[in-house]
Description:
- The chain folds into 2 domains: about 1-25 and about 280-399, Aspartate Aminotransferase, domain 1 (Alpha-Beta Complex), CATH 3.90.1150.10; about 45-275, 3-Layer(aba) Sandwich (Aspartate Aminotransferase, domain 2), CATH 3.40.640.10.
- About 40% of the residues lie in helices and about 15% in strands.
- The chain has helices spanning about 15-20, 35-40, 50-65, 80-90, 105-115, 135-145, 165-170, 195, 225-230, 240-250, 260-275, 280-300, 325-335, 365-380, 390-399; strands at about 1-5, 10-15, 25, 75, 95-100, 120-125, 145-155, 155, 160, 180, 200-205, 215-220, 310-315, 335, 340, 355.
- α3 (about 50-65) crosses α11 (about 260-275) and α13 (about 325-335) crosses α14.
- The two termini are about 35 Å apart.
Amino acid sequence: MAYHVPFxxxxxxxxxxxxxxxxxxxxxxxxxxxxxxxxxxxPIIHHRTKEFQAIFAELSELLxxxxxxxxxxxxxxxxxxxxxxxxQTSLIExxxxxxxxxxxxxxxxxxxxxxxxxxxxxxxxxxxxNATNPEQVKQLLDDxxxxxxxxxxxxxxxxxxxxxxxAIAAIVRQTDALLIVDGITAVGAxxxxxxxxxxxxxxxGSQKALMLPPGxxxxxxxxxxxxxxxxxxPAHVYNLDLRRWLKSxxxxxxxxxxxxxxxxxxLVALRMIEDQGLDMxxxxxxxxxxxxxxxxxxxxxxxxxxxxxDSVTGAFYPDGIDDKTFRGDLRxxxxxxxxGGQAGRGADWKGRIFRISHMGHVDVGDPLATLAAIEAxxxxxxxxxxxxxxxxxxxAALQ
Length: 399
């Protein structure tokens, strides 16, 4: 395939399937480190053994450090959605009301789950691309003291938007309601302290900043959440009943057959995070996000968020850009995969935006290569950009 790029390498003819290094720059799933892949390729062991219990015990301890909590962090077979539904349905009393906060596709998903379980809701729906206003949360809690659970997304992946969870947690903490936080693209990427901030339940998934393929969900439980579990009878759940998972967790075990090799791989990834240090990872993610935003704006692209998350950056396409052609060019000519837009009740961004990740197994070269390729793909669709603009802006932001 022949193509022309607007920087000095000129015209190149090659077979992308043979020579392109794949760069998975989507905000989930993200790239998996080679050491993790090698660990997952090891022979499987039985999960009812002391060998597995030792692995699981270390995993659980490293998860507590990652979440910054003294409480249990449960490991559940399934996606982040599985883990979040388990938290939602296990911690609300039959007949109780929830406050569900959305500003994108995933916040709307948590509303849909409560609809599926016939749970009454008060809703806050922020405009897509805007953060949740903490004062609006306070007002609704003051007006409805019977609210039992509050759900919110820390980093809304669909809109690349971060909300002030620390402020909202402080508000919810003044009530009897539990705060359940979707930290799926926040844990391991953004500054987050479950115990210090007073978060009752924190959920994430393996395929984002935790550098693993999809398949594991994690639920951190604070003291108030554990007490709630012991006092309520969740309706119509079995596998998702967190009481079963908590009971087994106390014995470094799981109630049902786990994906053993995913757990082994996750342990290796968590050791890497521990060795690197969370503070350094947060700083690196923020620096890469700053560089990405600077490059987008220098190319004349409008960011999709007024309160950007550091784990993912998104931009609206200029007029005339075809989404499938643009992302196809990135994939076929450069081996780079970026995410498109999503549609929900609040907006339909399919075909209108694209998003790139800054979290997990990403080094400085990955976003720089991605930004240069984005510039090239836009120029190929006749967008007027001076060659080198993206890299100049990104490298300046990294100084």
